């Protein structure tokens, strides 16, 4: 099902023997700060490796949590070796995978890494709709009327389904996006292969969300620390939550957030920082 070559990418060289793992999905056209931005703000940031989601072939709706976790776990030995994973961080739906990876690392190395989760939560239709809206709004080659029409169709699809009906909504969003990609290729007078590539990225993202829903929660996940933006208060994913008065898009690019996260990653704040 998967055809990437690498399951991890180093996003910060850092120093010291220990490493930090990060889980997020890039490539959906979002304009939000990433873990690269956070690393740039951390003084003496450790070595950080970012999970590379597998490229889905075939039916993305068949993606499983076990499959994604196996993809990352099997590639971990090559990049980490015998070194200790000091911490695992996750963003949005990536928090599910980060927590599950920490479960496996606790067995592998004898102690559970520190887990820090940013705006954590299981994905749903609201998550997908927010990101899909960003995709459509970013299709600048289309006219305002064309983008508006796509957004109207998106809203109609969302309203016709329950908040937890992720797969059927995703299937219709994907078909809508495909039409937009075909129109974009016509407008740019480029080969339809570009549309195929854009659709493939979306399919990998949909597989990522579908797989996150398939990961069974573990009570140990509650021991992590949540870092939340002002739109994400009270998610109740963990016992400890630290909220910041920053927009979602700026959470991983905030100096205040970096100042609070640093002690957690360096083992000075532990999992029980103040809420």
From TrEMBL:
<dbReference type="InterPro" id="IPR029058">
    <property type="entry name" value="AB_hydrolase_fold"/>
</dbReference>
<protein>
    <recommendedName>
        <fullName>Thioesterase domain-containing protein</fullName>
    </recommendedName>
</protein>
